Amino acid sequence: MNREIWVFIEQEAGDIAAVGLELLSKGRELAVRLDGQVCGLLFGHEIAELADEAIHYGADKVLLADHPELEVYRTLPYARVATELVQERQPYIFLLGATPIGRDLAPRIASATRSGLTADCTSLEIGDFKYRDNVYADLLYQIRPAFGGNIIATIVNPEMHPQMATVREGVMKLGQPDEARQGDIERIEPTFDGGDLVLQVLEREIRQPACDLKGASVIVAGGAGVGSEEDFQLIRELARELGGEVAASRAAVDAGFISHEHQVGQTGTTVRPRLYIACGISGAVQHRAGMDQSSKIIAINTDPDAPIFQIAHYKIVGDLNKVIPWMIRAHQESAK
Amino acid sequence: MAYNCVVLVKQVPDTANITGKAMKDDGTVNRAALPAIFNPEDLNALEMALEIKERHGGQVTVLTMGPTRAAEILREALYRGADHVILLTDRKFAGSDTLATSYALKCAVEQVGGYDLVFCGRQAIDGDTAQVGPQVAEKLGLPQITYAESIQSLQGNEIVVQRAFSLGKETVKCMLPCLLTVVDSANQPRPPSVRRMLACKLAATPLEYASLLEKWPEFETEEALDSYLTGRGLKIPVWTIADVDADEDKVGLSGSPTKVLKIESVVLETSESKEISANSEGISALIHELAQEYIL
User: Fold this and answer.
1) Looking at residue B270, what is its pLDDT?
2) Residues in A touching B257 (Cβ below 8 Å)
3) Second-level CATH architecture of A218-335
4) How far off is chain A from B13, nearest CA to CA, in Å?
5) CATH at B53
6) What pLDDT is stored for residue A99 in this prediction?
7) 8 A C-beta contact, residue A80 and residue B138
8) Tens digit of pLDDT for each residue in B46-63?
9) Contact yes or no for A207 and B167 at CB 8 A
C-alpha cells in the first residue's frame, strides 16, 4: 500500500513558512507510525535551495516545481500542479498549513480530486474506523474545534484519498533539523494553459508581524478586566519585565485596548508558551481554545468563579492593578 | 455594463454570542438553543453584490441551501435589496460535507445561469472551514478571489480586487466570471430597508404555506395564498435535487468523503491548581518558584 504523506511547503519570497516545517515534523512522526514516507511539495521560482531545508526537517523526498509562473502564489497555477501530482501519484495523506494560502489552495485540490478535506486541525492521530460493517485501519484522525470552539470533532476520510487536512499554525511541535539527513529531490516540469493564468497579481504587500505570539515562551495577556487602553500599559510592562510578548482576549481587542494581531483564541492566534499569564480574562471557550496548551497558566481575576481558573495552574483572586506591580517587583528582585 | 451576481449564503447558529441560556448543566453548549442568524460574512458578500448592482446595474440573486427555516435569511436578503432569492432544500442533502455541499450549490448556480460574479462570505461561523467558496469555484470552473476586501475597479470583463489577510494585502486583476469570498472588513452591511420590509414581509416558500394559513385565515386554501404571493412576486422558489439536476450519489452522506468519527463537547477541565495569596509575599513566592523551575 502507498503510504506517502505529502506536506505542502509554503514559502514566501524564499522563506519557508514555519507551519510547513512544523508539518514536516508531524509528517515524520506519522510516517514512522504508518511505515511510510514524507514527501514535501515545494513550489516557486528559484527556490531549489529550500529543498535541503525541507529534507533536514523530515522530508524523505521533495517534489520541486520551479517555474516563473509559480513565483508568487496564485490559486490556479498552484492548484493545477498539485492536482495533477495527486491524481498521478495518489498519496495517502496530504497536509497543508491553515494559512491564507493553504486555506485557498487545499479546497481547490480537494474538489478537483474529490478528496475529503478537514479545515484547521489542531491535532492529528492515526487510528481505525468502523463504518457500515467495514473496518478501515490506520486512518488519519483529523481533530479540530468547531462551533466557535465549543465542540471538538474527529473527522476521518475512509475511502476518498488522499486524506487532506489543513493544520493550524503553531500547534504541531517543530522538530530539530538534522543537517545530515539525506533525501531525494525530484524536479517537476509544470505546463499551464491560458485558463490557469486569468488572474494576475498587481501588488503584494506582506507585513512582518508586530508580535511573535507563536514563538513566545512567555505571554502576558489582558482581557476586558484590564479596563482601559491606558491600563493595558501595565500588561506591556509585565511582558517587558519577563521578556515575553503581549497578548489579549477578543473582548480586549474589540474594546480597542490593543490591535487584533495580539489576539489569542479561536479567531486569533493559537499559542503554547511555557508560561501564559491571563490578566482580567474571564476565560470564554473561544479564548481557552487558543491557549489551553500552555505549559503553565497563571490567572489573575477578581471574580473567583471566572472560568479561566478552571484551567489555571496558579490561581490569583485579586486586583491585577496590585498583583502585576508585585510581580514586576518580585521579578526584579529575583533577577538581582 | 450591467453585472449579474449570485450570492451564496448560509443560516448558522449564533456561535459567537453564547449566553448562559444555551449552556447545559454539564458545561457544554446546547446547540439547539442557539438563535439562527444570517452568517455574518455572507452579509458582507451580499453588500458587495448590492453595491455593484447600484453602480453598474444587473440582478442580485441570493441562494441558500438549508432546511425550511432558512427562508428566514432569504427574507432578510430581500429586505436588504436582493432581486431574487432561492431556497435549495432536499432531504437528500442532509449530512453533506463541504464537498457535497459545494456540488449541490454548483448545480444550483448553473441553474440560475447568466452570472458574471458569484459571491460567498469567507467562512461560516459554525464550521469556520472557508472551503465551500473555493470548492464551488472549482466545480464551476471559475477562478476564485478569496479574502476579498474591496473592488477597486470593474470594467468590461475585468475586475480588480484588493484581498486582505492576516499579514498582508494583495491586489489582483481577474477575468470574469469569477467567484469572490468576502471578509468582514470589506464593508458595513446595510440594515434592512423599512420600505422593502413592508413590501416583502409576506414573502414565503410553499413549504411555509401550511403554517401561514393558520396566521392568515383570510386565505382559505394554499392555492389562494399561492396565487396571491405569485401575483406580487413574493413566492420564494424552492428547488430540490431534481430541480437542479444534481446526482444523488454526490450529495448527502454518500457524496461526502469525510465522516464524523466523534464529537466531544468541550468541558471546562480542571487541572492541578494552586491558589496563590493575592499579596506581595504570595506573589514573591510564586515568582521564585517559577524561576526555580526554569519557567521564568
Assistant:
1) 47
2) 114-116, 157, 159-160
3) 3-Layer(aba) Sandwich (3.40)
4) 8
5) 3.40.50.620
6) 93
7) no
8) 999 999 999 999 999 999
9) yes
